Amino acid sequence: xxxPALPRVIASCLLGYVxxxxxxxxxxxxxxxxxxxxxxxxxxxxxxxxxxxxxxxxxGASGQSASAExxxxxxxxxxxxxxxxEGTFLLxxxxxxxNTCDPGxxxxxxxxxxxxxxxxxxxxxxxANKCVPVIGMKTFGESCERMADNDDCDVGLFCMTDVSGHTxxxxxxxxxxxxxxxxFGGECNPFNDGVLPLCQVECDPxxxxxxxxxxxxxAFDGFVCATPGAPDGLGNDGxxxxxxxxxxxxxxxxxxxxxxxxxxCCTPVCDLSEADPCTSPGEDCVQWLExxxxxxxxxxxxxxxx
Length: 306
What we know:
This protein is an all-beta fold.
C-alpha cells in the first residue's frame, strides 16, 4: 500500500476544542474520565458567538469573558505570578494586549479566574485569555453553562461545549500547564496555539472507546476524547470541517481527501491491517501519525496518495 505525504495539520489544533484540526496531539491519558475536547479543536480537544454588548472594552471580542483591556493592569493573587511584559501574551493588530492572564497559572485577582474567549468575531473557537468574575463552583466533569464571556465552572476549569467558542451546555474540563501532571487524569494539550490548554483523555479512534456522547479524534500526536461538534447536517464523509471534532465519530478532518471542495473535509478512520478499507477509489488507507506508538501503528485515514 502506498504511503503519501501526511496531511497537513489543520489550524494548530483548533478545538472546536479541544478549535480542538486534524493530525494535531495527545499524550498518554491515565483514566477514561475525559470530557469534550476541539479544540477543534487542535482538541480538539477546537465560538462564533457575538460579543456581549456590555463588554464595551473588549475591542470587538466575540466570545467568552469580561473586559480584556480593563484587566491588563490588575494585580495577580500572589507576588510570584508573571506580568504581561514577559512576551507570553498575544497582541492585537494595533499592538494592544489581548491575553491578560495565564489559564494554567490562574494568575487573576482574588474572586476572578482566567478563561479563554473569542476575539475574532468570525471565529468559532477561542483565541485569547482574560480575567473574569467567578460566577459558579461547578467541578471537573460536571455539566456547566458557557455564556458569551464566562461560564459557571470553578477556578481552573473551562466549560467545553461542542466547539470551544460556542455557548450553551458543556462539561467542566481542567486547564493545565504543558508537560505538567493533570489533577483529574489525561495529559495537557495546548489547543488553539496554547490559548486553550486542556487535559484530555487518550482513546482509540478505531475502537471509538470514549464515554457516551463523545468521539475519539486526532489531536497533535495522538487521539483524544471530545464532544462531536459538527454543524447540523454536516460531519459525514466528504463534508467540510474546520476543527478536530468537526466530523462525526469515526471520521478525521483532513486536507488530503478526494473531491473536497473546501480546505478540509471529513474522511473515515481506517485500519491498516484490513484489506482495502477505503471505499473512495482515489483514496488509500494511510498511517495517520508520522511516528506512532505501538497502540496506534494500524491507525490510518482514507486520503489521496501524494
